[in-house]
Amino acid sequence: MPTALEYERRITCYDWDELLMLWNQIQLGDTPDWERGKAMEYLVLRAFQLEGAEVIYPYSVVIEEEELEQIDGAIYSNGLACLIECKDVAERVNIEPLAKMRNQLLRRPASTIGILFSRNGFTYAAISLARYIAPQTILLWTGDEIEYALQSRQMQQSLLKKYRFCVQQGIPNYRIQAEEGG
After folding, report:
1. Residue 179 predicted with pLDDT over 70
2. DSSP E strands: which ranges in 65-142?
3. CA dihedral for 34, 37, 43, 49, sign (positive or negative)
């Protein structure tokens, strides 16, 4: 399998059209050149990068020679500092990744937010937990929202909409297509 650096070099050559093609492959579960789940991690980060956000590709946090955490990436966009977790699984995501991210956020500055991307959405329990996980903020993105933001080339604007709605309403799973009736 390719190394993290090889994945990063590969994805940074992708443009918007190539990202959309990769997204279609991800949805079909047909990403033979990528280790399971890696294509989605790198796609999300590259989409933000194409819009000018600063991204940190997947990395490990090592303390005293032991891996403490594996982070799917980080995004710095519009004054927001975000940790990323991507779940490319067939079922809806339950609470476990939220609990993991909450613990990761507890070790970060209070202004850091989490973003959990799920190709197939979230269980009711996960959505409910995300609403009451304060003081940490974890925004939820579904596969159709990823696709919408890729097609419209509005990853950063969509992130800002979700964040502002969460600030105003306390709801972390605002649907970014809501303004278009989606």
Report:
1. no
2. 66-71, 73-77, 80-87, 113-118, 138-142
3. negative
In this prediction the pTM is 0.94
**Nearest residue to 166 (alpha-carbon basis) of 121, 142, 132:** 132
Position 181 confidence tier, pLDDT thresholds 50, 70, 90: low
pLDDT tens-digit readout, 43-70:
999 999 999 999 999 999 998 999 889 9
Given the structure tokens 């890729």, which residue do they identify?
150
Q: Give how far the C-alpha of residue 26 lies from the chain's centroid of Cα atoms, to the nearest Å.
A: 14
Cβ atoms of 1 and 35 within 8 Å: the answer is yes
| Per-residue tokens: 48 | 């933000």
Q: Let me know if 34 is exposed, middle or buried by CB neighbors in 10 A (0-12, 13-18, 19+).
A: buried
Which amino acid does the sequence have at 150?
A: L
114: number of Cβ within 10 Å: 24
User: Distances in Å between the alpha carbon of 132 and those of 20, 50, 103, 125, 135?
Assistant: 33, 33, 14, 11, 8
Helix (H), strand (E) at residue 25: helix 16-28
pLDDT digits (tens, 9 = 90+) for 127-152: 999 998 878 899 999 999 999 999 99
Q: Are 123 and 94 in contact (CB under 8 A)?
A: yes
Residue 142 to residue 87: CA distance in whole angstroms? 10
**Of the candidates 41, 50, 48, 44, the residue with the CA atom closest to the CA atom of residue 13:** 50
Distance CA 48, CA 111 (A): 19
